[in-house]
Input
Amino acid sequence: MRRFFTSESVTEGHPDKVCDRIADGILDELLRLDENSRAAVECCAAYNTLLITGEVTSAAKVDYEKVAREVIRGIGYDFGQFAFDKCKVIELVHGQSPDIALGVDNSLEKKAGGDDADTLGAGDQGLMFGYACRETEELMPLPIVLAHKIAARLSEVRKQGILPYLRPDGKSQVTVEYEGKKAVRVDTVVVSTQHDEKVSHGQIVADIKKYVVGAVVPAELLDDNTKYYINPTGRFEIGGPEGDSGLTGRKIVVDTYGGRCAHGGGSFSGKDPTKVDRSATYMTRYICKNLVAAGLCDEVEIQVAYAIGVARPVSVFVDTFGTGKLSDEELAEIVKKEFDLRPAAVIEKLRLRRPVYAKTAAYGHFGRDEFSWEQTDGAEALKKYLK
Output
């Protein structure tokens, strides 16, 4: 059966991603100075103003405004109303609620005499999903991989001076045609990129096809019927927070799997790893990737759910979409046996108290080998379950 699936990505200069990057930049600085920092930082950017809000409990003393301006400068906003040295910055940051800290610092299991890994309870209730498939070498769906590569390439050609007329804001979208579950071609590519006032629309179209799409999309996936929509409105000079408001955590599908699988709804950026919205989602990705790498399935989605103040998940659900070498119920039991999903254990396993988060704020949290949750070091041990 022929079908089509579409995913999108955005550049680091997209207003929502500007906010994600500032939030994670602040988190990284907190963790660099105090690895036990608790943070849930959120930002809102609009026109010429940045609002930094949320909760932080840390021994670190961080100049939030300085971090924010450095991030904005690094992204490339040295012009316009939201320029790094021109925009207004408002701070409304407070400490973590003591009511929440009661359960995080001393879980229900620890109170009952549990071990050290029981010390941390989940910072909130919620459900989180992980996913992996054999569609690409990254064990990710092809549409989101290509969309991320196009968006990242937009920033690359801008910063390297290959296309110096580009500006930081931009979006990409890729539609892939499938025959059954096999990706056979790219049907549609959409790219919208901010630019200066001197360049013509015709030049933008030609350059984006050549230096962006042509540089990252495999030629065998493109054909004479592939459709291109490049700056389809014809003009995109005003962008970033000056053109549209931005908000931390608003691009959650871009951050994960491009809509291919379910999403629990929680965002990642600005949150320290005691927040299971972030750490458990990373852990479920790690587990899924290792299950696929071990050959136990070709595609898998895992859901875990937590209760606030409780260390162990209240449920673990596995769906291999009919590709499992064992039943989904058996794989769920293997997951519970082989992987410790308590927050303290997840943090230790994936080394999540390090300042690694700013790099996640654009071009996806998954499918990039530089992150600990993308490693397949557990695959060999899982092969013992193959019959």
Summary: The mean pLDDT is 94. The CA atoms of residues 103 and 309 lie 4 Å apart. The longest strand covers residues 166-179. Residues 15-33 form the longest helix (19 residues).
